[in-house]
Amino acid sequence: MRFKDNAERDAFYEAKIKEEYERNREWLAKKFHELPTFFKKRIKYFQDKNPDFWKKEVYETFVCLEAVKIATTLKTVDAVQENMDESYSTQIDSSKLSAGHSTFSICESNKLAIEYLESKAPAQ
Fold it and tell me: Alpha-carbon distance 58 to 121, whole Å?
């Protein structure tokens, strides 16, 4: 597809993102309520502080859900950090992560899993 300028291109992609957001609104609401409070607070913060957060909400919800899978499966910060050194496919398989991850989304999910596990750890 060719665009006459950057503004036309940006409008086209923003419309696509809006369409995806609207298509996933019910799913987002359902998944939000399934998340642990730690992740609900994170998403709520972004919703309250960023009027354009809807553009990132599908992705953010996805990586939070995947972080829960990682934390639940691996159980400790050390185990998550060790798993991060493994190959892409090993990381996907070890926590039964969803298909379609990018390297960045796996890294983000791992980071969030570590933050979540640290938030649950007893104070030193």
Answer: 28
Task: Say whether 115 sits in a helix, a strand or coil.
Answer: helix
Residues 6+ apart with CB under 8 A from 4: none
Averaged pLDDT, 59-69: 96
81: nearest Cα among 89, 72, 91, 69: 91
Distance CA 87, CA 9 (A): 35
Length of the chain: 124
DSSP letter string, 12-68: HHHHHHHHHHHHHHHHHHHHHHHS-HHHHHHHHHHHHH-TTGGGTHHHHHHHHHHHH
Q: Rounding to the nearest 10 degrees, give the CA dihedral for residues 91, 88, 110, 32.
A: -80
Over 80: is that where the pLDDT of 2 sits?
A: yes
- Terminal-to-terminal C-alpha distance of the chain: 56
What pTM was estimated for this model as a whole?
0.87
